[in-house]
Every structure is written in structure tokens, then in C-alpha cells.
UniProtKB/TrEMBL annotation:
Record-linked NCBIfam families: NeuD_NnaD
Protein name: Shikimate dehydrogenase
Stated family: Belongs to the transferase hexapeptide repeat family.
Superkingdom per UniProt: Bacteria
Protein's organism: Salinivibrio siamensis
Amino acid sequence: MNNKKPLIMIGGGGHASVLADILMGQGREIIAVISPDDVSERPIFDGVAHFQSDDAIDKFSAADVKLVNGIGFLPRSPLRQKLYQRYSALGYEFETIIASDAYISPYASIAPSAQILTRGVIQTGATIGENTIINTGALVEHDCYISAHNHIAPNAVLCGQVTTGEGVFIGANATILQNISIKNDAIVAAGATLTMCLDKNTTHYPIRSTEKYT
Ligand code: JB2
């Protein structure tokens, strides 16, 4: 065990259970999970107090606990950011999560509350913004600037000096070439390769191999 503050997990689904696995493996104590849905089918939460309403968070003083944002982020799903902003404004701190087998260059900058999952790689000179998820196996190369509230999904590759605005979603296995800029709330679909800058609120889809024959 350690002397860090106990944690309250917001959400009890897939993302929350991945974070709980990392945190418990690091000896952290999760004292409550807050989820409107049943969590009994997720053994990772066995023995953790379950509350169905976010009102239960008020029972815990912001001075005594830290929150974990266990709500994932898929395109056009505002809940993760909304809860983060609501509870930050109330004075709660969100824990920063860095998996023990992630690689973070000593010359990278990780904002408090960011989440770097198993085998995530953050290379030298890169910056990761608040409440952003760098998911399993994702690679953020040198000097990238990843803003707040992004989700870089599993195994995505961001070559050097990519910049993103807030709320960007980059799907699993997508590749972003170097020096590309992706504006606020844009989406790069899973498996796509992005070779040009992407405007705000737009989506870049993968080119299907059949398209070159039509
Ligand atoms: O208002 C809410 C609320 N609404 C839904 N407050 C709180 N505290 N929790 C809420 N939830 C909970 O979010 C649900 O009860 C459920 O426990 C959780 C959503 O779980 P789900 O497994 O559907 O999605 P996820 O957000 O954990 O994961 C998505 O995003 C990840 C990044 C998934 O699509 C994953 O595949 C993905 N890796």
C-alpha cells in the first residue's frame, strides 16, 4: 500500500475496469465506484462500495479523496468531459494514471488527470493535456502536442509534431503522419491514415482498397 489518497471511480464499465486494474496493481485503494448500472459482473469491483447516483460523490470530501474519470470517450459522447468539468469546478482533483509498463520520456509533459494506459509511449518533447486518454499501445512520437479531452485509441500511431485541439478522437490503429494538425472535436476513424490537416468537427475515414477501382 502507499500513502496516496483513496480513489472514487466514476463509471463502472469497460474503461473504468481497465483503469481499476492498473491502479490496483499499483497498490491504490478504490473505495467507491459510481455507476447507474450494475457492476456485479465485473469482478474487479468485488468488495468496492457501489453507488448508483453521482450525488454520492458529495459524501466524500474533496480534501480526502481523488476522483478517477472512468467514463470512456467515443465520438460525440460528451459525458466524460462534462463530469470532469463539473467535479473539477467543485474542487475535486482527478488522479493522473500512468500504467507501470507505459514509457514516458523524462522530457515529455503529462497534465494532471491524463491517463496513459498499458504500453502507451510518450516520446521526448511531447505534451499530453488534461483528461486525455492515451489508450493501450498508442504511440505519441516526439514533440506532439495533444490537447485536453482527447482519446487516442489503442495502437494509434502519431508521428512527430502532430498537434490536436480539444475533444479530438483518434480511432484504434489510425496513423497520423508527422506535422499534421487536427482541430477541435475532429475524428479520425479506426484504421485511417491521415496525411493532411483536419478541420474542426470533421471526420476522416479510411480509404477502402476497392475505391481505387471504381
Ligand atoms: O451519468 C453517469 C453515467 N452514465 C453512464 N454517471 C456515472 N457516474 N456513470 C455513468 N455511466 C456509466 O458509464 C455506466 O453505468 C457504465 O458503467 C459506464 C459506461 O461503460 P461502457 O463500458 O459502456 O463504456 P466506457 O465508457 O467504459 O468505455 C468506452 O470507452 C472506452 C475508452 C468503451 O466503448 C470502450 O470500448 C473504450 N475502450
